[in-house]
């Protein structure tokens, strides 16, 4: 198969199973999420191809540096850190930052096959291109609901859902997205952030608008669609004024005071209050659903309760703590109060018990201690990061004019 560049037709058949979304009416088709199941041997062989493909892509630097999605040693934390670092520099200089967060519609399902094959032939060696061409073409799918199955249908667009190669093929397809020297572009798969800063809000929006026009023309050429109504425009600044509105394909993007990017809620002054409150609300909801296991009436042992807390609740508030941990103490206390309440319940501690004794008994660090420990480990990790855009985050810490905490504060000098 590797020698002759052939992918068996029997391995190109996808079985689509419909999963009902939580809280959605079962009689509407939009209430279901389609899950694609591929043959096991197909996915095993894709592993072999994936190693060769990713090695070639990395050696020839086909994927742009600002793309952090589906790449080894790249995570959402580093990408959001890049965005936050740019915003922080803007606030330090007391400028305006015009930010756009694009929403690409059905990005993986709408990949144009002819355009993808053109780019694969342009950048990959012939034998690997022939194999991927055979892998992409002539794919079919059928639906299965309970014991009933549909007829076969041809897959005319998109990368194979549930496949090993799908993410890599999408990154190659979008690797030639336009870039600009005065624009910060941050992409994680199809999640795209665009930022430009200037002392004049009009100039900042003009810079973003010129770049959006280039991106819109590129999307139109390669049959990629972005929803202007679901995309967001925000002004990051310490001042009251906003940057003028910007358009995508003639449609004005809605202006927001808080935007969501990679599960982070970014506010215009970067104080993290909204993000912490959203996480607290999510924790309250999860804790209520687990109260029968973690409550005082539960017969589980303390160790098992603590294990559930570490596996389900703790990852919610520790996600991105390296970034939002720089918030002021009053905002950090919001998360600390939640942890104190849960740990007291787990330990069956009376109301008059000192919280320090509970933390010592359960050997659980406080939120501030977690901020220091995880931030130190994160700083050490990105110091040896393979992407220069990530390592630059530790080497460029300017003199601050504002009385704001920074991620590296209290962690000692950077070596």
UniProtKB/TrEMBL annotation:
Signal sequence region = none
- Give every Reverse transcriptase domain span: 1-266
InterPro entries to which the protein is assigned, alphabetical: DNA/RNA_pol_sf, RdDP_mobile_element, RT_dom
Report the transmembrane regions from the record.
Answer: none
Q: At the top level of its lineage, which domain of life is listed?
A: Eukaryota
Q: Know the name of this protein?
A: Reverse transcriptase domain-containing protein
- Provenance organism: Plutella xylostella (Diamondback moth)
């Amino acid at each position: 198969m590797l020698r002759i560049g052939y992918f068996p037709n029997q391995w190109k058949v996808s079985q689509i199973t419909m999963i009902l979304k939580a809280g959605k009416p079962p009689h509407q088709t939009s209430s279901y999420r389609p899950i694609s199941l591929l043959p096991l041997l197909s996915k095993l062989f894709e592993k072999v191809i994936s190693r060769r493909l990713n090695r070639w892509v990395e050696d020839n630097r086909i994927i742009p540096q600002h793309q952090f999605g589906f790449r080894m040693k790249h995570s959402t934390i580093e990408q959001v850190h890049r965005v936050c670092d740019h915003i922080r520099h803007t606030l330090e200089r007391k400028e305006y930052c015009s930010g756009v967060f694009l929403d690409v519609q059905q990005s993986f399902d709408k990949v144009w096959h002819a355009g993808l094959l053109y780019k694969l032939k342009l950048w990959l060696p012939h034998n690997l291109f022939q194999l991927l061409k055979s892998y992409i073409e002539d794919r079919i799918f059928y639906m299965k609901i309970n014991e009933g199955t549909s007829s076969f249908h041809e897959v005319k667009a998109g990368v194979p859902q549930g496949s090993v190669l799908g993410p890599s093929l999408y990154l190659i397809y979008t690797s030639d997205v336009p870039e600009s020297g005065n624009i910060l572009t941050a992409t994680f798969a199809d999640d795209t952030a665009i930022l430009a800063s200037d002392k004049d809000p009009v100039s900042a929006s003009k810079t973003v608008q010129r770049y959006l026009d280039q991106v819109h023309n590129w999307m139109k050429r390669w049959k990629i669609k972005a929803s202007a109504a679901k995309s967001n425009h925000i002004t990051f600044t310490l001042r009251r004024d906003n940057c003028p509105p910007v358009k995508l394909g003639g449609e004005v993007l809605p202006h927001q005071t808080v935007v969501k990017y990679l599960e982070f809620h970014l506010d215009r002054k970067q104080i993290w209050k909204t993000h912490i409150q959203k996480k607290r609300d999510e924790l309250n909801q999860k804790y209520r659903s687990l109260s029968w296991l973690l409550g005082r009436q539960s017969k589980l042992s303390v160790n098992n309760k603590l294990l559930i807390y570490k596996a389900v609740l703790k990852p919610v508030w520790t996600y991105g703590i390296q970034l939002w941990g720089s918030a002021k103490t009053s905002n950090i206390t919001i998360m600390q109060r939640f942890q104190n309440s849960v740990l007291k319940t787990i330990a069956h501690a009376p109301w008059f018990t000192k919280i320090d004794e509970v933390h010592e008994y359960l050997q659980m660090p406080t939120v501030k201690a977690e901020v220091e420990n995880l931030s130190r480990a994160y700083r050490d990790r990105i110091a040896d990061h393979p992407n220069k855009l990530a390592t630059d985050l530790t080497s460029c810490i300017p003199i601050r004019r504002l009385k704001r905490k920074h991620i590296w504060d209290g962690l000692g000098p950077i070596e």
